[in-house]
Amino acid sequence: MNSRQRRGVILLLLSVLCAIGAFAGVISVINDVNSKVGPEVPAYRVKSDVAPYTALRAGQFEKVSMPERWLSDSAVTDLSAVSGKIAVTQLKKGSLLQKDMIVDRPELASGEQEIAIMIDAATGVAGKITPGDRVNIFATFAGKTQDDADQSRIIVPGARVIDVGRLTPLDRRDDDRGGSREAVPITFALGTKDAQRVAHAESFAEHVRLALLARGGSSALRPGDSTYTLDEDKNR
Q: Which domains does the chain possess?
């Protein structure tokens, strides 16, 4: 082997040693990063905005993987945690689901039952009613004959709201004003008689509206306050 060949072999060996050193350096960096980042765990990201006090469903979230050390202790890592829960605040699209964003859905008291009706968003809700609120439920009925006065009634005073759904477009055929309207499904916790009154009003009343009561205030009605006709003002 002449001197030129020996130099070639030496250079080749040096190249191999440099490659091995570089590879070892890369592995060391990767191991260092892994040791700092740690193992990944599942987390759940909100697919689209969720309104406050909305009942939660698994389909509203998408699974992502994140390093465990980057997640807060309150991050939801098991989607079964949303079962029977509602959003306590506005959930923004792309945000990670946290335990403090959700609460248990209000439970029914003994003798109560859930009943949901659609309430006109413009005249009956206006974004002010939330679960836990108390409302008076009003219904307006047309007179049975031409001589009978139209009447407004408080059919249920102090009804407890347990869920407020999403805005839902109403069927244009049901809109006697010819324009587009939206309604919100409102769920109440009511006794049997009050539930029957609400079901009857939804089917036969001209309109059903809600009046929000002050928190902690009395929902008791004075004699004569539960019904109203226009004639009462005309005769004053």
A: 40-104 (3.90.1210.10), 113-234 (no CATH)
